[in-house]
Design brief:
Elements lengths: L8 H29 L3 H12 L4 E3 H7 L7 H10 L3 E6 L2 E9 L1 H21 L6 H18 L2
Antiparallel strand pairs: 1-3, 2-3
Helix pairs in contact: 1-5, 2-5
Length: about 150
Amino acid sequence: MAVEVQPPPESWAAWQMFFEAHAAVCARLEAALQAGHGLSLRWYDVLLQLHAAPGGRLTMRELGRAVVISKSGLTGLVDRMQRAGLVERSGDPDDRRVVHVTLTPAGAETYRAARADHRTTVAERFLAHLSRDEAVVMEQALRRVRDENAG
């Protein structure tokens, strides 16, 4: 049986504000990407990860580890993105269990076009509300939380 942890009230308030701010900013990002590019935040996340990968290519397993928004339903998401012409799937001739996902030229162009709106929305809806010192403290604290919980 788990023992209930009793952090101070300000810690719970920090958690609640993180949770609410994350939801609010992600909703704005989703709306901007949908309006400007017909992309969900999940599609943008896949395009971002592939764009950052060497040769614009990852295995499905690597892509599953890399995506941030949601790992569930990734196979179906990649299927839909392939039908939209943004990515290609290919098998590995040396290992039939491995499937590669590659960013297509259309996917790369879509990512480049959407990146400007993504960055503008993040800057306006999140970064503009933090001082430089607050951003540094927040980055350090959230990195510790992420690293402690990465698995």
